[in-house]
Structures are given as C-alpha cells and as structure tokens.
Amino acid sequence: MDAMSEIVRHVRTMRYEDLPDEVVQVTKKAILDTVGAGLVGSSSPLGRIVAAMARDSGGSRQSSTLVYGDRVPVQEAAFANAVLSRCRELDDVHEGTKRLGGGPGGHVSVMIVPPILALAESLPRPVSGRDLILAVAIGADLVVRLRCAAGTAGKLGFMAETVSPFGVVAAAGKLLDLDEDTIANAMGAAYSFCAGTTVSNADGGWDIWLAAGTGARAGIVAVELARRGYIGTKVPLSGVGGLYPLYFRGEYHEQTLLSELGQVFEIANVSIKPYSACKCTHNAIHTALGLRHKHAIRPDDIERIEVRTCSWNVKLTVLDENGRHKHEPRTLNAALFSMPYVIATALVKGDVFPDVLNEDTLGDPQTLKLSRKIRVEATNELDEYMMRVGFPPDVVAIHMKDGSVYVGAESKAKGHPDNPMSFDEVAAKFRKCAKFAARPLTDRRLDDFIAAVSRLDRLADVRGLNGLLCADAAEG
After folding, report:
1. Per CATH, which fold does 279-410 belong to?
2. What is the pTM of this model?
3. Which CATH number fits domain 4-274+419-475: 1.10.4100.10, 3.40.50.300, 3.90.1150.10, 3.40.630.30?
4. What is the percent of the chain with per-residue pLDDT over 90, rounded to a whole number?
5. How buried is residue 164: exposed, middle or buried, by Cβ count under 10 Å (0-12/13-18/19+)?
C-alpha cells in the first residue's frame, strides 16, 4: 500500500490540541519570518515581475499580493507571494536531524505559508488562528519528510520545492476540512505538478526561486480540482512511475517518511536565516564574522582564506557552470549563491543583508578583491556530517599577511533550532525587511501584523492578515 494513504489519514485526523507547544510557537515565528521575506522580495526584479503577472491575470478578486495589495485569484496570490518570499534568500530552511538522516530537508515555510494565507483570505467563513497554525505545521512537516525519505538521492538536484505540492495539499486540505477521498485525489493531482531543480545555482538563473511559487500554486490548484470531482492516482509515492522510483532513482526510506507522524513536526527543526544568502553559506558567514569581531580583522590585511565544507555546499555555492570558483558573480542572484563572495561581503561590510548586498553594491572593488583570495574545498568528514546530521561546521581559516592564522568552525548560526531567534528577534528582522519593500508600509501596519501573529492562537479570524501589509501600499 502506498504510504500516501496513511499520510491522508494523518491530515484528516490531526487536531490542534495534538500539537506540542514548541511547534505552535515555532510556527508563529515561521509565519512572521516568511511574510517578512516577502516584503523584501517585493522590490526585487523577479518580485516585481510576478506581482505584475498576478495583477494582470484577471479573474476573481480573492486574495492579496503582498505590499502591492492587488486582489487576484487565490492561486495567483499563492504563486506571487511565494516567489516574493523566496527570491532574496531570506526564508527559513530545515537543518536536518539525526532522527531523519539524509541531511537538510530544504526550504520549508515559503511553499506553505503564502498559499495558506492566500487561501484563508479567500474563504467566505472565518478562519481561526489555531486552524492556520495547524495547517502550516502539517504541510511544512510533510515537505521535509518527503524530501528526507529520498536519502542520498534527495540531493541529486531536486529540491524541497519539488515535493511541495503535496505539503500544500495537506495544509489546504486541513484548512478546508476536506474528507479523506478528496484529499487523496488532490494528492494524486499534486504529483503531476512536482517540479524544480537546483541547476540554475551554477549560473545565477532565477529558476530556483520560481519553484516555490509553482509548488504553492500547484497545491492550491490540485485541491480545487479535487473539490470539483477530479480523480487522482492513489499511489503517487511508490507506484510504477511514482515519486521515489522516478524522481529519486528508487531510493525510498518509508520509515523516515512515517516515523512519529503526528508526534514530531519538522518545522521545529528549521533555521530562521539572519543573512540574505543561500543557507549553505550561513555557517561560513557566521564563523567569518565571529573571527572578524574577535581578532579585529581588517580585509586589507588578509593574505588568503581557506574554507572546508561538504560537497553539497560546494555544488550549490562554490562552483559555476564551468566548474570554477564563483569569485566574481555577474548578477545578484549569482552572488547570493557564491560562498566566496558572501564571505568576502561579511568581512568587508560586517553583514550580509540587502542593505549591503544588492544590485548596486555588487561590483564593490574591495569585496571582489577579497573574494578572489578565498578557496573552498569539500572533505569526506564534512560530507558524512551533512548526510547524517545536517549543515556541517564549515572550517574557515583566515591567513593574515603578518603570518597569523585565525581558524573557526561554527555549525549553529543565529536562528538554528539550538541557537534560536526569539519572537522579538524575528519581529526585529521583519521590521528590517520591511525597509526594503517596494512601497512604504507604516509602522502601525507592521506593528499590527506582528501583534496579530504573536497572539495567533487566540485569534478567531485571520483572513485579514495579508491585508494588513497591503492597505498603505494600495493607498499610495
């Protein structure tokens, strides 16, 4: 029997009261953080494109695009808002756990929060904060489990976004209180929409960000098809031509997928990102900044920097399409996936965030000069750590011109589950993100949104959440 039948029963029977309090609190932070990332993304080139496409799509005025405030069909709002929240590399990422193995589960909340907020906004009846929290927790957990159940094959080049339509169906099915047959049919439809790879990381293409939106939209469309009578396959995971035989070359660890389902929720193992860069670079950035502060390092005094990491991080953030180090990224998106460049940015600017790393600062001579001095290589030891636990403690060795060598290896940058951001710290990041929105949002609007999320489990109706971050923009 395909494991999807057990997952569908889990979605149908799970109750808010079954959620551990830790999961409730983490989910609130995930919602706030994901929307904050969308505020930054609204001013990006890709963000502007998808917002305009949503606006021009026509159809029912169901849900709002973040910042811009246009009312569009729910699936188009889901698509646009997910891409906005993804395209500045500020959304959360699963760290991996020894319990699951297989390394990190990829990006998580960005495919679940935007479509579920859009769906809630579109409904004719009140949606409680508890219902929203439960839906997001279920959907996020499923995305991680599906990715990690592929084991080593989960790192072939497919992403969490590839399997995200299933997670969106789970979340939306719960929010809508659908019966098991309807959810099962929607899961079948979801499989037909699975897509997305990491291929664009090498040359700086935008494709890797697009998949968050296509997954979000696909899940909403799959649910709507099933509600209208669509009949989907009941063996989307292990059937002939199913997800694991086809996408992951037959590697499938069902125990990973189903272990402690409904008891352990992987959203509790995501990291909230302090830096605007691929998560694969965060431990190296964190380590470099620590060394900079501890030893008062001046970039001009650095002779060279050597970094040891895992092969996955090298594949995603070190080598270009020709197999060379990405020392001089030509575009901002290429820079966000360049470990040498973001380490150099951190050491020169003291941070990696859109105020210091953006289209206008990309050609900074001092940053480029230092980036050329950085070499990164993978080690077997850190490869093993990656697949057993999660993102490894990258070893950063800064060689100074005077002969001094400063070495560090940190594995838990701020935001890690073992080094978490408090709700207030996530709110501070949210406000920082809002400064880069395409249109200004007043402090009152931001404060109202933060306050609403903080008491989400006590709200009777959350349908107006997206609107809190659109009204001023629409009036402007």
Report:
1. 60s Ribosomal Protein L30; Chain: A; (3.30.1330)
2. 0.96
3. 1.10.4100.10
4. 90
5. buried
